[in-house]
Design goal:
The protein has 365 residues and is α/β, with parallel strands linked by helices. Helices cover 42% and strands 17% of the residues. The strands form two sheets. A six-stranded mixed beta sheet has the order 3-2-1-4-6-5, with helices on both faces. The chain has a six-stranded mixed beta sheet with strand order 9-8-7-10-12-11, with helices on both faces. The relative contact order is 0.12. The model has no long low-confidence stretch (mean pLDDT 95).
């Protein structure tokens, strides 16, 4: 393969389609945002005369067989179709757009990058659920983990802030946005994470519940007569910050309501912080210690109060924030005091850079 310098990245989310043109110096040379369902011709027209060597497509789920960045061949596309039921909202839209773009932009290679790929390094004890073995072996129920592109970049960038290599550090990466997950990154590899078979496991999120006891869910189904589809919709879209606060799914609005005296908003923040703090400690335990904690994503980067509240209960891990650094500044930076045993940093989420790096690695093999 010919080395690729300029990469066009395609990130299909639930609320937008983001195109970023990344040059050889990892600078964003072009940026375009579109609503979901925008036709491929419109995306190509917006990019205009921009030239690029390859296209990298983000997929939330690679399914049980796609474990690393691959060329988007007929075989790979067929595997992606089989994986649609595992992430129907994201994977179907991403696949449809990719097939359109492959037709319109047929002169460059198209590659698929997976959020699940980074977590394929999970040891079996972290990946396997304690469920009937037929469910594990027969139908493939296991912990996949998500936000892998963000976690991989955040860990790498955290190490760079200290002039170190990620392979030499134990890092808890906290991707906190509308969706939220943590990863324990040891030696540059994911050894544990909070999301599992689906993205609705682990932390409390904007509208997702995070982990709920299976017994509670089964009781609700029996008591209310809800269908599995209705229960799934409630846990995906009517829970989390929105469900508990009764105010909003937006952390900024929930924080404002808390300041205005809303008891439910205050409770929502308390539940969010409790689960976040406990999960950070759990990720540290999975690595037998922690050298750095990284906050990234919309909430992770901008909610200073959430960071402070979560870290306030982690002194036993050597975490101590510099209040001034936590409250002020912008961009990638250290927010812990110099003497802290465990460093704390903020890293701007840059999934497009990780996609570009993955595409280059795959094409150079």
């Amino acid at each position: 393969m010919v080395p690729a310098e300029r990469i066009l990245t395609i990130n299909v989310g639930s609320s937008s389609v983001k195109l970023r043109l990344i040059d050889g110096a990892d600078t964003v040379a072009g940026s375009w945002d579109f609503p979901p369902g925008a036709p491929a011709e419109r995306l190509v027209a917006a990019a205009g005369e921009a030239t690029f060597d390859a296209v990298g497509h983000r997929f939330v789920h690679g399914g049980p067989r796609l474990e690393q960045t691959r060329l988007a061949t007929d075989e790979v596309r067929a595997e992606l179709r089989r994986a649609i039921p595992l992430a129907p909202l994201h994977n179907r839209a991403a696949l449809e757009l990719m097939e359109q773009l492959q037709s319109v932009l047929s002169g460059v290679p198209h590659l698929v990058c997976f959020d699940t790929a980074f977590h394929r390094s999970l040891p079996r004890e972290a990946a396997i659920y304690p469920i009937p073995w037929d469910w594990t072996e027969g139908i493939g129920v296991r912990r996949y983990g998500f936000h892998g592109l963000s976690h991989a970049y955040a860990a790498r960038r955290t190490a760079e802030l200290f002039g170190r290599r990620a392979v030499d550090l134990r890092i808890v990466t906290c991707h906190l946005g509308a969706g939220a997950s943590l990863a324990a990154v040891k030696g540059g590899a994911s050894v544990d994470t909070t999301m599992g078979f689906t993205p609705n496991e682990g932390l409390m999120m904007a509208t997702r519940s995070g982990s709920v006891g299976p017994g509670a869910l089964l009781w609700v189904l029996r008591e209310t007569g809800l269908s599995p589809e209705a229960a799934d919709d409630a846990l995906e879209h009517g829970a989390g910050l929105a469900g508990v606060s009764g105010v909003s799914a937006d952390m900024r609005e929930v924080l404002a309501a808390e300041q205005a005296g809303s008891e439910r908003a205050a409770l929502a923040i308390a539940v969010y912080v409790h689960r976040l703090r406990a999960s950070i400690a759990a990720m540290a335990a999975a690595m037998e210690g922690v050298d750095a904690i990284c906050f990234t994503g919309g909430v992770g980067e901008h909610a200073a109060g959430v960071r402070a509240a979560a870290c306030a209960g982690l002194h036993f891990l050597g975490v101590e924030l510099d209040p001034g650094a936590n409250e002020a500044g912008a961009g990638d930076r250290v927010i812990s005091i110099e003497a802290a045993a465990t460093a704390t940093v903020i890293v701007t989420a840059r999934e497009e850079l990780e996609i570009a790096a993955e595409v280059r690695r795959a094409l150079e093999v």
